[in-house]
Design brief:
Mean pLDDT: 90
Strand order of the largest sheet: 11-8-7-6-5-2-1-12
Distance between the termini: 49 Å
Number of helices: 12
Structural class: alpha/beta
Largest sheet: 8 strands, parallel
Bound molecules: beta-D-galactopyranose
Strand content: 15-25%
């Protein structure tokens, strides 16, 4: 019976591409399906809260090197980022030199002269974890050798190097750029690598990067995934819809992931892509740049969404506002809350939004977001927040790090353009 429910989820729901999950007949059944697959993934004890780390692509692209990785590992420790929970250092695309005559991948000898094992050892010596990138097709998006046909070999090699995290892309797969999205093909290819990773016996966090067209939130757990990209690449820009290319802005990414909360939880997370916080239009990935309020909003919303927090800026050279945003333990605690709830939008009016994320201890995180390009004030009621109208809460402002006292019935904020303020509401004993 359980098995058949699982099959229904995978094979039926992917075909109909609907959030209501046909075959599981509604929300309750979908929850049961999710629980079955969650248990399997949770056994590995990987990604029990959203993964946190740094990825080379946004800042360094094809110029990533062992020097950059070593210095980034050093900076992760010296800046305090490690202390607030960031742990994975992930080398993205274009680290490759090629495949040798035995079919073994090797890194670019100029940029990685010491080899990957030595680099992984260095990262581990700092108490951090080491991640790498490959692709389910014949080539990576950066035209390097892909893992298609080499899944077992590559997985074992990565395990031998000491890899703890694999980001697995979907370029150069038969249908990757077509509108005839082939779910079965994607599932098969991601499962092949998922199985190969498991067979190594090394716990390797599996990050699926299919960008969303084949609804990986429906099958990500089934193939062993711990996180799955829900949309195309977030660029360093506040608002940009996808215009036929792979570039989107922060708002689009939020909107795509906003209705997928039921698929996220311990062991497997929706991934709205990396943080562009601190890029300031100087990275390999551009877009025009965001201001600090917009960067802070990205951090706030990613935490409300229980998203993986993968930094993309050059953490060796962060300015003070970037540090303030990335090192805010109060907002990170919302992301890392062990219930693993993805926050959801409870109110939207005149481009003002209220979001809610239930936390442990009957607490609730509330985000108030102004999408307008002008100052706005907003007030939300307990009813709008789906709270008991008679309840009183102690309110804590997560960016001001200040207790605001007791509130009963409403929460208000004055918001600058694109600002998001976040509050934690804790049940109040006193009446
Ligand atoms: C894209 C992916 C990016 C980055 C890039 C590397 O497909 O979405 O995050 O990994 O490939 O070529």
């Amino acid at each position: 019976m359980l098995r058949s429910i699982k099959n229904v989820v995978v094979w039926v729901s992917v075909l109909v591409f609907t959030f209501s999950i046909a075959g599981c007949a509604g929300k309750m059944a979908a929850k049961n399906c999710m629980q079955q697959t969650k248990e399997a993934v949770c056994d590995q004890k990987l990604a029990m809260t959203p993964p946190m780390g740094w990825n080379s692509w946004n800042s360094f692209g094809e110029n990533v090197s062992e020097k950059v990785i070593r210095e980034t590992a050093d900076a992760m420790v010296s800046t305090g980022l490690k202390d607030v929970g960031f742990s994975y250092i992930v080398i993205d695309d274009i680290w490759h030199g090629g495949r040798d005559s035995d079919g073994r991948l090797y890194p670019n000898p100029q940029r990685f002269p010491s080899g990957m094992k030595a680099l992984a050892d260095y990262v581990h010596s700092k108490g951090l974890k080491f991640g790498i990138y490959s692709d389910a097709g014949t080539k990576t998006c950066g035209e390097m050798p892909g893992s298609f046909g080499y899944e077992e070999k590559d997985a074992q090699l990565f395990a031998d190097w000491g890899v703890d995290f694999l980001k697995y892309d979907y370029c150069y797969c038969p249908d990757y750029a077509s509108t005839n999205n082939d779910y079965k093909m994607a599932i098969a290819r991601y499962k092949k690598m998922g199985d190969a990773l498991k067979a190594t016996g090394r716990p390797i966090l599996y990050s699926i990067c299919e960008w969303g067209p084949r609804s990986p939130w429906l099958w990500g757990r089934e193939v062993g995934g711990n996180m799955w990209r829900t949309s195309y690449d977030v660029h360093d820009i506040w608002d940009r819809p996808r215009n036929g290319d792979g570039e989107i802005g922060i708002l689009t990414s939020i909107d795509v992931v906003s209705n997928l909360g039921r698929f996220a939880g311990p062991g497997g997370w929706n991934d709205p892509d990396m943080l562009v916080v601190g890029l300031n239009n100087t990275g390999f990935i551009k877009g025009g740049g965001c201001n600090d309020i917009e960067y802070r909003t990205q951090m706030s919303m990613w935490c409300m969404l229980a998203a993986p927090l993968m930094m993309g800026c050059d953490i060796r050279n962060m300015n003070e506002s970037t540090k303030t945003i990335l090192l805010n333990k109060d907002i990170i605690d919302i992301d890392q809350d062990v219930l693993g709830n993805q926050g959801y939008r409870v109110m939207r009016k005149d481009c003002l939004e209220a979001w809610k994320k239930p936390l442990t201890g009957n607490r609730v995180a509330v985000a108030l977001l102004n999408r307008n390009s002008a100052d706005r004030s907003v007030t939300v009621s307990w009813e709008a927040l789906e709270l008991d109208p008679a309840a009183r809460y102690n309110v804590y402002d997560v960016w001001k790090h200040t207790a605001l006292g007791q509130a009963n019935g409403t929460l208000s904020a004055d918001l600058k353009p694109h600002e998001c303020q976040v509050f934690v509401l804790s049940p109040s004993e006193s009446k």
